[in-house]
Design a protein that fits this description.
233 residues, alpha+beta, Jelly Rolls, Arc Repressor Mutant, subunit A, 2 domains, 4-stranded antiparallel beta sheet, 9 helices, 22% strand, elongated
């Protein structure tokens, strides 16, 4: 995974958070239900009744929000090891605050409110696990806000591309609009910057995806240190 002078907004895998909370992973797994989703399938919609906490075992998902103008935009992409939906266990009521869609074949372990309540009765560590998950989510959100406030638009886009390149092994199945919303910049700015990066020979833009052809150069442009063990361009 790439790393830079500013920490990434990625959270540690949920299995590490389980260990940090001193919760028995086997016990947690036994309290969850496995769900499988096809590519493009909506896991839940913004405004749905709150359900449970999802732990991603396979695949990637897009987190989408509706803007004040009514547009639906991707604000994050989560991969294996990530969690989403923890708010449902925190307040126990309410609605989903985002739409989550599977970008490819995805499997999650879902801990619903009933299972969470039963687990709490016999395993106090599950409360600590939930606190750790929420705490890491807050750290991630704070980091994203810091980058949005203090990093130039070009740097934010480059680092977004770096993260997605690592996640999708160089072939990013997202639109320019999605990259713009994830980077917190306008579509026209994203288009201009992407065209420049393409002219520099770092990426290739296709109709349905963006292919990174020079990952070391991409990290360098984004001000990120090389991956350990990788050749320095």
């Amino acid at each position: 995974m790439w790393e830079g002078d500013i920490p990434t907004a990625l959270c540690p895998p949920w299995t590490e958070l389980v260990a940090l909370a001193e919760l028995d992973e086997a016990v947690l797994r036994a309290s969850c239900r496995r769900h499988r989703y096809a590519r493009g399938e909506v896991i839940f919609h913004e405004g749905d009744a709150a359900g449970g906490l999802h732990l991603i075992e396979q695949g990637t998902v897009a987190v989408q929000l509706t803007t004040p103008l009514g547009d639906v935009v991707i604000v994050d992409v989560l991969q294996v090891g990530a969690t989403f939906g923890e708010q449902a266990l925190v307040d126990g009521v309410g609605e989903r605050t985002a739409t989550v869609t599977a970008l490819d074949r995805t499997e999650t372990l879902c801990l619903d409110r009933a299972g969470f309540g039963e687990l709490r009765a016999t395993c106090a560590e599950v409360d600590r696990f939930l606190l750790v998950v929420v705490g890491r989510r807050l750290q991630s959100t704070s980091q994203q806000l810091l980058e949005a406030l203090y990093l130039p638009a070009e740097t934010r886009l480059l680092r977004c591309l770096c993260r997605l390149s690592a996640m999708f092994r160089g072939s990013i199945p997202l639109r320019q609009t999605d990259l713009a919303s994830m980077s917190g910049i306008t579509r026209s700015t994203a288009n201009r910057l992407l065209r420049q990066i393409e002219r520099d020979g770092v990426i290739e833009m296709h109709r349905a995806h963006i292919r990174v052809v020079d990952d070391p150069r991409l990290r360098q442009l984004g001000g990120l240190r090389p991956v350990r063990g990788a050749a320095v361009p």
